[in-house]
Structure formats: C-alpha cells, structure tokens
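Why should sequence recovery work at all? Because a backbone constrains its sequence more than one might expect. Tight turns favour small or flexible residues, buried strands favour hydrophobic ones, and helices have their own preferences. The token representation captures these environments compactly. In the example below, the structure is given first.
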C-alpha cells in the first residue's frame, strides 16, 4: 500500500513537471517575436492588485466588464476641503479606473480621494460598504420586526410559527441556549437583545459579501473595529467592584508579581479582548474572499502562459471555487456565532465571581 502511494506521488510529480515544461516552452516560444512598445504594449496581469481591488471599499459597485463596457453603479461622493467647502458629485466623474480628475480632486490607487493641490480633504462619501450596511440594517429591521409582530399576535406561541419565523426561531433558541445561558447565567435575558443583534447583523453582512459585485463589509477593519469597541463598552458597563479589585490587586500572588500582572490584566481587558473579536472576524472573512479570487485568478494566470493551459485549468479552478464558496457559507454562520459567543464569554467574565452573583453562572466558559 505504501509503495503504491509512493508510486502515485512520483507519477503526479512527473506529470506536473511535464505540464510546466510543456507550457513553459510554448510560452517562451510565443515570447520570441519582440514588438516595439509603440506598436504593441500589453498590460501585464497583476492578480494581487485585482484581488485587493475586489475586497477593498470603493466608490462604486462593479459587477463585470465586457470589452469597453463596465457594469457599475456609481455612488455619491461627499467631500469637504477648506478652500472649496462641501462638494457633492457622482463617482463616475473619476472614470472606471479612477484615471480622471474632477473639480480639483482625484482618486488614488488606494481608492482614496485627494486634492490635486495637496490640501486636506475630509471624505464623507457613501461608499459601497456604507450602502451595504444600510441595506443589511434595513433587512434586519424588517425581518425581526415582522417576526416580533407575529409573536405579539400569538403566532409561534399558541400556534405553529410561519414563514421566516420557522427559519429564524431555531437560530434564536440556539443563541439563547448555547451562548447566552451558559455564559451569562441568570442575567442572560438582559443581554439577549444585544447578542441577537450582533449575531444577525454580522451574519447578514457575511452572506451579502458572498454575492458577486457586493462589498466585503465584514472584511473591513473599520467595521469590525466598531463592533469590537461596542462590545468593549458593553463589557466595561457589565463589570463590578469585585472584577476591578481582582484586576488592580490580584489575590494570592506576591507583590512583585502583582506589579507585572496588573498591566497585563489591564491590557487583557482593554486591548486583547476587543482585538480578539476584531481581528478574528476580519481575518477569516478576508481569507475566504482571497482564496476564492485566487482560484479564479489562476485561470487567467495559466491563460497568460498559454490559452490551452487557461482553458484546461478552468474546470479545476471552478470546482475548487464552488467548493470554497460553500465552505464560506458555513464560515459566515460560524464567524457570526464565534463573535457572539466570545462577546458573551467576556461579558460573563466581567461580572463573574461577584458577591451578588453566587452560583449565577457557574458553568460559564473561560477562554
């Protein structure tokens, strides 16, 4: 069995080497006729730039390009500078690639608006991340408000749930039974509205980010930072005197150890815990998008070597892309759960062990 596996490994290595050698020779042969820059100038494929352009925020929604036609939805630009005051115009004035200047402003390669004269610019534009968050908030409000009205009418209480209520109710009970109650004990009711809001808001934005042409909102550090800071505020307001007494004067340790431990404990509360929430969500959502776009880019990379290689690798690339896409659907739910669960854990730690909370949540998870 071992020898068979070893033989297959060598066979695959040989086949891959032959593949690279063959197409490398074809590419080299095609590259021999050198044309002057004046007559022919082909733009070199830059997969890294293409990938970063797709996952970054922008001033337009770009769906596809067919020849010279670009299917985009331009968004309003709202900027302020001391010399010109407030300027409002469409992002289409910058051109598709941001190569054109307008009204004394231009768009950099990093998709930032700057003044041509170098003066300070304050950008209040409605970017695609902002638009998508507004859509997610509207959808969250409509969805939850509709379900709440059904519960008020007794649907789902005295009778069986209907419509979206069927899909959402198991998720709500899951957050209640697996996140809130184990980590928050008898105080779980107080924090359920916040935990549910965070879970569904992240989940909706995660799912929207998987649609072609949409914004990768949860892969933006500004978005995850705000969520992390809001959770930090909730955590700090949940603390008690017992918690801070243990932070500033840890019991049962020598004084010289306390001098080292106190700054570490403060950093853990004020920096490390919110950073764990912020970086975990950002990194996982960006990684998934980069992997999907990388598999798609491989088609064009092999196609630049030889058209046969591009067409031959296309089915493999598409299969891997579809597989990772379904994995990302699972990750969208997992990351919403992890962020919500860690928030509940940190809140539970904030009031754990207080004199008014004896046996309140003895089963709290410590991470």
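From this structural description, the recovered sequence reads:
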């Amino acid at each position: 069995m071992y020898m068979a596996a070893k033989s297959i490994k060598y066979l695959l290595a040989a086949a891959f080497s032959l593949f690279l050698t063959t197409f490398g020779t074809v590419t080299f042969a095609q590259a021999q006729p050198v044309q002057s820059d004046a007559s022919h100038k082909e733009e070199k494929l830059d997969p890294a730039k293409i990938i970063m352009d797709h996952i970054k925020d922008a001033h337009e929604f770009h769906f596809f390009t067919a020849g010279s036609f670009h299917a985009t939805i331009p968004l309003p630009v709202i900027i302020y500078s001391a010399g010109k005051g407030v300027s409002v115009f469409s992002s289409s004035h910058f051109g598709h690639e941001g190569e054109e200047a307008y009204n004394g402003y231009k768009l950099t390669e990093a998709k930032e608006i700057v003044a041509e004269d170098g003066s300070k610019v304050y950008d209040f534009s409605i970017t695609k991340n902002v638009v998508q968050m507004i859509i997610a908030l509207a959808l969250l409000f409509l969805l939850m408000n509709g379900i709440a009205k059904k519960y008020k009418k007794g649907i789902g209480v005295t009778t069986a749930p209907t419509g979206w209520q069927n899909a959402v109710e198991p998720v709500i009970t899951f957050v209640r039974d697996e996140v809130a109650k184990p980590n928050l004990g008898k105080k779980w009711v107080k924090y359920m509205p916040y935990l549910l809001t965070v879970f569904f808001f992240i989940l909706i934005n995660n799912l929207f980010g998987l649609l072609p042409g949409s914004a990768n909102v949860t892969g933006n550090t500004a978005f995850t930072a705000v969520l992390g800071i809001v959770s930090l505020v909730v955590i700090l307001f949940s603390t008690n005197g017992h918690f801070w007494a243990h932070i500033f004067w840890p019991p049962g340790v020598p004084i010289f150890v306390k001098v080292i431990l106190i700054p570490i404990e403060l950093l853990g509360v004020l920096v490390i815990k919110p950073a764990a929430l912020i970086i975990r969500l950002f990194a996982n959502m960006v990684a998934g998008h980069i992997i999907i776009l990388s598999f798609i880019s491989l088609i064009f990379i092999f196609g630049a070597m030889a058209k046969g290689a591009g067409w031959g690798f296309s089915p493999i690339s598409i299969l891997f892309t579809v597989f990772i896409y379904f994995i990302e659907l699972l990750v969208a739910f997992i990351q919403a759960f992890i962020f919500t669960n860690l928030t509940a854990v940190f809140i539970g730690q904030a009031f754990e062990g207080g004199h008014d909370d004896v046996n309140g949540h003895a089963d709290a998870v410590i991470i």
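A few observations help interpret the result. The chain has nine helices and seven strands.
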